Structures are given as structure tokens and as C-alpha cells.
Amino acid sequence: MKKIVTTTKAPAPIGPYNQAILNGNMLYTSGQIAINPENGELVLDDIKTEAEQVMQNLKAILEEAEMSFENVIKTTIFLSDMNNFALVNEVYGSYFNEDTAPARETVAVAALPKFVNVEISVIAVK
After folding, report:
1. What tens digit of pLDDT does each residue of 84-116 get?
2. Measured in whole angstroms, how far is the alpha carbon of residue 20 from the centre of its chain?
3. pTM of model > 0.70
4. Where do the domains of the chain lie, and which CATH numbers do they carry?
């Protein structure tokens, strides 16, 4: 059964979607960008700070669903500039145990919502 997952510790949706959907034991998050949920402002100081905010937003959603990054089985990373790959990967990697890290793809795109540099979504399982 489909259950909406929402938390004030992650940014509110900016369109007709939800932060995440829990279907059975599977959690599907919407792509997260670097919006600070406390003030609604973008965090674009530098690419590592931006990626950190994205991961914190995902962490908040996972926690609302009573999960953690250990439950993540698949991630998708969208980058507006593949030259940022190494720096985003450094931040991203700090949230996972390398031995149990999820499957992943990283894709370069022409543009992202609000013209941010990185967007990440995850699929997790309990």
C-alpha cells in the first residue's frame, strides 16, 4: 500500500510530488536539491556544501521512514557539470560504507531545477 512520507526536516516539494513514497518495504525518494529546509534558501556556496545539503535532506527523509543510508539499495545522481563528479563523490561517499554501498548511476544533464548543480534520489528497502 502506498504511503506518503513527509518531514519538515527536508525541503517541502516545489511541485506536484511528495518527498518520498513508501510502498510495502520499498522507499522511493524524489530528487533532492540543496534547499535548506529551515529557511527555504538554496545552499550554493560551493559544490561540496551543496552536495552535503542534498545528502542531509535525503537523510531526513530516510529517518522519517525509519531507515538510514544502510537501507539504500540504489541512487541516482544528476550533475549539471561532470567536472564536479569527484567533489560530489567525496561527499556522497562519506554517507556510505564502501563494502555495502548501493548501486548507482551518475548522469550529466543540461540543467536542474532552480539551476542547482546536483540532485540526488534514492531507493531504500527495510
Report:
1. 999 999 999 999 999 999 999 999 999 999 999
2. 11
3. yes
4. 2-123 (3.30.1330.40)
